[in-house]
Design goal:
The complex is a heterodimer of chains A (about 110) and B (about 110).
Chain A: E1 4-5, E2 11-14, E3 19-25, E4 32-38, E5 45-51, E6 54-58, E7 61-66, E8 71-76, E9 85-92, E10 101-102, E11 106-111
Parallel strand pairs in A: 2-11
Antiparallel strand pairs in A: 1-3, 3-8, 4-5, 4-9, 6-7, 7-8, 9-10, 9-11
Chain B: E1 5-7, E2 10-13, E3 19-24, E4 31-38, E5 43-50, E6 53-56, E7 65-68, E8 75-79, E9 88-95, E10 104-105, E11 109-113
Parallel strand pairs in B: 2-11
Antiparallel strand pairs in B: 1-3, 3-8, 4-5, 4-9, 5-6, 7-8, 9-10, 9-11
Chain lengths: ~110, ~110
């Protein structure tokens, strides 16, 4: 079993839809959870960063962490074509970059 | 403010050749990380510099890989000799502090070993 699982997609949605992206993980000791957005031919860009359980909202983006289920989600409201990218989850025990475990990414296409 | 830059953006070499990748971090960032993503796999950590010192190189796959960060500024990652399985995208990231929330990634170098 992989440490972090993520549906690779591709996921296609119409403009304006609510998008739900998810990751599951096996290591219950993970405490730090991140979502990155990666456009084609670019590096990952940090979108959301959360510690432990709960929700965090930033504009159209909401990150949820359910540690009891070992499941994290990223919701995108009112999705736009500019949201088309690959979304990577990452998690860590201790917030040190060398210990990040990344998911394989979900490719999202928002169709105008 | 300029972001993390990497050079070259692409490299195609033959098995057995040597390739050197360069990363210029954001000015003032003491922490520099190398990651790579091989085809179909996840991004994996390679090593971490704090200034010019290697803090953690536990992710380096073998001794064909050599990273340096002379003077604590830019870093190079040399692969010698390159093997087919080294193909992938090599990312560099920098941060002013330890902590994932302050890490900025470069665009990556796409390496293809034929």
């Amino acid at each position: 079993q992989k440490e972090v699982e993520q549906d690779p997609g591709p996921l296609s949605v119409p403009e304006g839809a609510i998008v739900s992206l998810n990751c599951t993980y096996s290591n219950s000791a993970f405490q730090y959870f991140m979502w990155y957005r990666q456009y084609s031919r670019k590096g990952p860009e940090l979108l959301m960063y959360t510690y432990s359980s709960g929700n965090k909202e930033d504009g159209r983006f909401t990150a949820q962490v359910d540690k009891s289920s070992k499941y994290i989600s990223l919701f995108i409201r009112d999705s736009q074509p500019s949201d088309s990218a690959t979304y990577l989850c990452a998690m860590s025990l201790d917030n040190y970059g060398q210990n990040f475990v990344f998911g394989p990414g979900t490719r999202l296409s928002v169709l105008p | 403010e300029a972001g993390v830059t990497q050079f070259p953006s692409h490299s195609v070499i033959e098995k057995g050749q040597t390739v050197t990748l360069r990363c210029d971090p954001i000015s003032g960032h003491d922490n520099l990380y190398w990651y790579r993503r091989v085809m179909g796999k996840e991004i994996k950590f390679l090593l971490h510099f704090v200034k010019e010192s290697k803090q953690d190189e536990s992710g380096m796959p073998n001794n064909r890989f050599l990273a340096e960060r002379t003077g604590g500024t830019y870093s190079t990652l040399k692969v010698q000799p390159a093997e087919l399985e080294d193909s992938g995208v090599y990312f560099c990231a920098s941060s002013p502090f330890l902590g994932g929330e302050t890490q900025y990634f470069g665009p990556g170098t796409r390496l293809l070993v034929l």
